[in-house]
Amino acid sequence: MNLRKALVGSIREKCAGKLHLKVDRFIKALKYLDDRFELMLVGDGPDAVTLLRVATAEQVAPRVTFLGRVTVEELRAITSQCNIGIVAYSPVGWNNLYCAPNKVFEYAQAGIPIIATDQPALQELIEGSGIGVTVKAAGDAEQRAHEYANSIRYLAENAAVFRSKIPQFLAAYNWDNESRKLLKCIEALSQDSV
Hints:
51% helix, Rossmann fold, 6-stranded parallel β-sheet, alpha/beta, globular
């Protein structure tokens, strides 16, 4: 496999003075990966400056591309150039712990395997479906960066296996199936209130 790029879906604002997303650990992971690996960051916000500083301090800045805000059409084109999709969330807050971000589905539709932080919903979606791997979000940044690098390398080496599971994932998680589940929940709630 000729791996050239990994993609992060967005850069977000700071949360309580700390990086809200764990994107910095993916930047740090680059120093443990050979030069075939590059990182493309899409989005902007106050963290972009901090992340650029991290890339410079880790001496990987030439391998990190900051694309800023892009249109949906541009995002699709960028995603199609990537080999791995990254979904990174802090393990703080209910929204982050139980999220099911659109990025998972965008990457799956683009046919690329995913590496994500280990929130319960992401573990169920990604590892449960076999379309990628999850990594610990909490803990020492340097230790996590090394683990992230190992997981990225593993994902790259086994990309064909992960890609082969994506059609099943997309067939299971589509609006027809999800709408039936939603209607059952609504019907159950309406019967309980009667």
